[in-house]
User: Which sequence fits this backbone?
């Protein structure tokens, strides 16, 4: 079994079979991170470049660890310390990196579509590690892996995604992925944070958090992305948190065995109250991070190979 | 489809069972009992055989011998050059291998490349006192300096023949067949 695709650009392009293959492969990779020697020789001699034009802790570290645990050489480039500050364009950077013969380029960029542009220019595999407010497929895959592990399935579950939907690539990728896998997705957020015509993606949309999380199996809280908001689209963080913060009382509306997810970094007390974020009977936030390494190992494994 | 191929059954269910019984006794004889002994089955055929050996061993001497499952895909020597990606199975070795006598179990010993990969994987899990190899069929044609400690049956074969061990657990029937290639 092999992925026929050269690149992983978004959940929109992945089929149910491909998603299942990735998730099942990732499940087999989980065990490696529990070993004393956390390394297998599989990608010896392969080179992976992490090209990050935006800040990242989790995703970049996760890709780097994933590559290293597979014995690949991983190189990190962050825009702030690269020739980007000297005015080099993305295309020129890509062509120069291509000339050094890496096998996979992982890119995060603030412009939607940057990974797609790269994928059309270079022969290497491109993995989208987040492009603007567009997609973040590896996050959606690790979220689905976490849900599958905790709930035993994805199909038929009720998943509520709450917060700044319009600016969230995590939300978009999860809506595509979860809908494909047969889950029902419910969104909630202030009107200014809900993209227009989002119902066309097959989701139910509410303005009140309480309405969206009733009977939910999974509640996914999103971070308020102040860096992506061009102007103030809500009066204050304090007011936002009064209406959209998940806490001890409103979580009772969800199913008893609800799991609470967050892609991180969390703004404690803004979209999620600290006691929920830290409560292991609800929160699977650190499980998500743990699954992230396995999902990225699976993608690197499935995308690389010889030409025979 | 089956008719135009030349398929020969070289071992039936009773034959497989007798081989495993003998191997179980040989393992205990060579290791002077079951102290410090662990079994590791190589996915997928070796796992079922290792489970059967585990049962037989606990029938001869009381106490269960730990059993691990190993998928060698990530250690294959052709993984970076071949475009084929075998479906990755789970590895489960929920015990320490340090100072253990490990008996690797596989169905067919052929080129030896699988066993090389398996040994590399085992060393990543710890430092066994010793690694031994038990196989149901040794069909020859080694490409690496590897031999088995316990062999069910030596089956001289030609390179264009296919040797398969079918087991109830995955194929619904216990038999070893040799098939002429086309």
Assistant:
């Amino acid at each position: 079994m092999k992925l026929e695709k050269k690149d992983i650009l978004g959940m929109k392009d992945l089929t149910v079979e491909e998603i299942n293959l990735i998730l099942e492969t990732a499940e087999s990779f989980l065990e490696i991170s529990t070993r004393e020697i956390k390394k297998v020789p599989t990608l010896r001699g392969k080179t992976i470049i992490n090209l990050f034009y935006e800040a990242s802790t989790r995703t970049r570290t996760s890709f780097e660890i994933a590559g290293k645990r597979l014995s690949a050489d991983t190189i990190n480039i962050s825009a702030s310390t690269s020739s980007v500050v000297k005015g080099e364009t993305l295309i020129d950077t890509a062509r120069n990196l291509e000339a050094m013969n890496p096998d996979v380029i992982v890119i995060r960029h603030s412009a939607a579509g940057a990974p797609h542009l790269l994928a059309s220019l270079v022969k290497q595999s491109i993995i989208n590690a987040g492009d603007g407010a567009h997609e973040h497929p590896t996050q959606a895959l690790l979220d689905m892996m976490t849900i599958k592990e905790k709930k035993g399935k994805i199909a038929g579950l009720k998943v509520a995604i709450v917060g700044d939907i319009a600016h969230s690539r995590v939300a978009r990728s999860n809506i595509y992925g979860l809908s494909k896998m047969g889950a029902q997705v419910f969104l909630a957020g202030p009107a200014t944070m809900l993209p227009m015509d989002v119902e066309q993606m097959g989701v139910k949309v509410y303005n009140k958090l309480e309405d969206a999380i009733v009977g939910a199996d999974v509640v996914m809280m999103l971070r308020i992305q102040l860096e992506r908001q061009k102007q103030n689209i809500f009066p204050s963080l304090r007011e936002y948190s009064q209406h959209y913060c998940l806490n001890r009382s409103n979580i009772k509306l969800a199913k008893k065995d609800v799991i609470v997810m967050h892609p991180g970094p969390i703004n404690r007390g803004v979209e999620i109250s600290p006691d929920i974020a830290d409560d292991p009977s609800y929160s699977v936030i650190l499980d998500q991070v743990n699954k992230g390494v396995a999902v990225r190992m699976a993608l690197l494994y499935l995308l690389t190979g010889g030409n025979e | 489809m089956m008719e135009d191929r030349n398929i020969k059954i070289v071992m039936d269910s009773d034959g497989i069972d007798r081989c495993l019984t003998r191997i179980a006794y040989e393992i205990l004889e060579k290791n002077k009992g079951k102290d410090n002994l662990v079994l590791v089955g190589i996915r997928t055929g070796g796992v079922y055989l290792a489970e059967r050996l585990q049962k037989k061993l606990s029938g001869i001497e009381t106490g269960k011998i730990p059993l691990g499952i190993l998928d060698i895909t990530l250690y294959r020597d052709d993984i970076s050059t071949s475009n084929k990606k075998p479906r990755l199975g789970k590895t489960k070795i929920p015990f320490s291998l340090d100072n253990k006598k490990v008996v690797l179990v596989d169905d067919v010993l052929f080129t030896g490349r699988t066993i090389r990969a398996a040994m590399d994987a085992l060393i990543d899990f710890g430092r066994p006192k010793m690694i031994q190899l038990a196989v149901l069929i040794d069909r020859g044609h080694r490409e690496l300096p590897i031999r088995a400690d316990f062999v069910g049956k030596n089956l001289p074969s030609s390179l264009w023949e296919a040797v398969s061990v079918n087991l109830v657990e995955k194929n619904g029937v216990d038999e070893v067949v040799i098939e002429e290639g086309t």
Notes: The mean pLDDT of chain B is 93. Chain B touches chain A through 22 residues (CB under 8 Å). The beta strands of chain B are 7-11, 37-42, 67-70, 101-109, 130-138, 150-154, 161-166, 175-180.
